[in-house]
Design a protein that fits this description.
The protein has a domain at 78-148: Ribosomal Protein L15, Chain: K, domain 2, CATH 3.100.10. It contains 3 helices and 6 strands; from the N terminus they run H-E-E-H-E-E-E-H-E. The chain has helices at 57-60, 96-101, 133-141, and strands at residues 78-81, 93-94, 112-115, 125-128, 130-131, 145-148. The longest helix is centred in the C-terminal third of the chain and has 9 residues, at 133-141.
């Protein structure tokens, strides 16, 4: 095999379309540009941002945040279920920092709420920013202690 024998694989190349070369060519006359108008003219291209004088989409986006009321003062809590705390040793102290070390939450400065899904099998000393009523009952039934951490609106990361 020589260099001049090399050819691309069958079906991988296409002939380029020659537009505006007469009626018989199939793309004569308007050459696929339609009839008249700015885009039919030579050099008549529009910049990507331009929408004919209408307010462009990129300028509308900051205001199109979704439907309905969005509370600017909403505080987001990171939920942790009681059953996830069974991984800690009996009698150990559970704080947002230890939850980060255990990989249960991502950041120590998150507001943590303990929820009552599942069962707690051992007594633990749990410190969090908020507890659901069922979580309190399950922790105290297991012989554990609860400490509610102080938090301020705006003192922590809010979404």
């Amino acid at each position: 095999m020589k260099l001049h024998d090399l050819k691309p694989a069958e079906g991988t190349t296409k002939r380029r379309k020659r537009v505006g070369r007469g009626i018989a060519a199939g793309q004569g006359k308007t050459a696929g540009r339609g009839t008249k108008g700015q885009k039919a003219r030579s050099g008549g291209s529009l910049r990507p941002y331009f929408e004919g004088g209408q307010l462009p989409l990129v300028r509308k986006l900051p205001f199109a945040r979704g439907v309905g009321f969005r509370d600017p003062w909403r505080v987001e809590f990171t939920p942790v279920n009681v059953e996830r705390l069974n991984g800690f040793r009996k009698g150990s102290s559970v704080t947002p920092e230890t939850l980060v070390e255990a990989g249960i939450i991502k950041r120590a400065d998150e507001l943590v709420v303990i929820l009552g899904n599942g069962e707690l099998a051992k007594p633990l000393k749990i410190s969090a920013h908020r507890f659901s009523a069922s979580a309190k009952a399950k922790i105290e039934a297991a012989g554990g202690e609860i400490t509610e951490l102080p938090w301020q609106r705006g003192g922590y990361r809010t979404r």
